[in-house]
């Protein structure tokens, strides 16, 4: 009889949550309102769910509550519309029981030893534990090594006395946001979801299917965690490969960009990747090392990852050497030259500067004695960063300003730059993005 009652209770809790998701009465809690959490909030609000957003950063909560956005590609109008639909932002974690789901979208950086820093995930979970209740679904979206969800989140939920898989639920569902990419939205990017148990998976899939066109279930949280790492390692390794190919091609007097364009005409078996001044962003330079660290526990060395990391992190030095050589042909040294770095966001058409190779370029040039300025239409003032410091504002580009620099270094090829004007007025351009197709005496590819 007791067994029957127990099974019945499980079914009731699960079914109640499924019903609430289906009839949109579920309250969606999102923890961490950054590049990942904010678009997700907008999508749930758009579909008609009440969203309760949690963040520890009071300034973000205040901005959102006032209908303002702090991310360039997310409009204030969209925040205002979400507020009208019931969205609330708060720093008060004691409101967690009001939510049916707690979707964690907090940072997963590396520490100074380039090892996983799970402190944001663990701090978030520790703040939530006192408020976890029966019927909660916890979903981790932060990129991390396989095992994090089961090894770190599960015991914390259990410490609250919850029977995970029966009276509360746990999934890992990686985020695939590509900021600034106009071809995809949160709704149209398929979403992978793995649960701690089949019941967890069923609820996770139901939740995401309510807002995303295609949800891809996998058999476990570990498979979902590994899927995200495979995707990003695939990019890091291939970018490392093409960066190495660029160096070889350059030595041989071949334009790597011409070669990539030609190779990309092959209709099968080739995927184009593009070289650059290094690897940037919060994901690709960092995530692979989450696997490297975890693989050591199993006695495995991740040699591809290490090699790609080495090649990619050496690229700024290679580009600076190109600047030095280009100035040298004009009888100038880096020391004392005025160098304008174009584009300091980590990729084109975004304002995100995390791990941007441009910052490494600026530091290396400054250390060598250059007088460094920058221009970036997406970053009007050089932001406060933990490890990098420049008291600079973006230079407005006009003919006289462009001509006043000994060297213009194209680091990030934003669409907003006037490439024809730059070509016309610059004394010397070092192009690390292959933007200038036609050779010219004052353009050097790097
Ligand atoms: N940015 C991307 O394009 C992208 C894409 C895919 C995956 N990811 C992954 O998603 C995760 C989040 O990345 P992001 O770019 O959104 O980071 P972000 O820094 O833009 O946002 C994280 C937010 O979490 C908040 N936060 C930090 N600690 C907290 C805590 N203890 N409780 C509540 N909130 C807290 C921060 O104040 C911030 O607003 C990372 O694991 C990242 O690797 C990011």
UniProtKB/TrEMBL annotation:
Choose any GO biological process term that the UniProt entry carries and state it: polysaccharide biosynthetic process
The residues covered by the UDP-glucose/GDP-mannose dehydrogenase C-terminal domain are 340-438
The answer, when asked if Oxidoreductase is one of the entry's keywords, is: yes
The cross-references to SUPFAM superfamilies, in alphabetical order and at most eight, read: 6-phosphogluconate dehydrogenase C-terminal domain-like, NAD(P)-binding Rossmann-fold domains, UDP-glucose/GDP-mannose dehydrogenase C-terminal domain
Source domain of life: Bacteria
Entry annotated with the keyword Oxidoreductase: yes
Pfam families noted in UniProt: UDPG_MGDP_dh (PF00984), UDPG_MGDP_dh_C (PF03720), UDPG_MGDP_dh_N (PF03721)
Keywords assigned: NAD, Oxidoreductase
Q: Which residues form a coiled coil?
A: none
Q: Which InterPro entries match?
A: 6-PGluconate_DH-like_C_sf, NAD(P)-bd_dom_sf, UDP-Glc/GDP-Man, UDP-Glc/GDP-Man_DH_C, UDP-Glc/GDP-Man_DH_C_sf, UDP-Glc/GDP-Man_DH_dimer, UDP-Glc/GDP-Man_DH_N, UDP_ManNAc/GlcNAc_DH
Question: Which GO MF terms are attached to this record?
Answer: NAD binding; oxidoreductase activity, acting on the CH-CH group of donors, NAD or NADP as acceptor; oxidoreductase activity, acting on the CH-OH group of donors, NAD or NADP as acceptor
Q: Which family does it belong to?
A: Belongs to the UDP-glucose/GDP-mannose dehydrogenase family.
What is this protein's record name?
A: UDP-N-acetyl-D-glucosamine dehydrogenase
Species annotation:
Aquitalea magnusonii
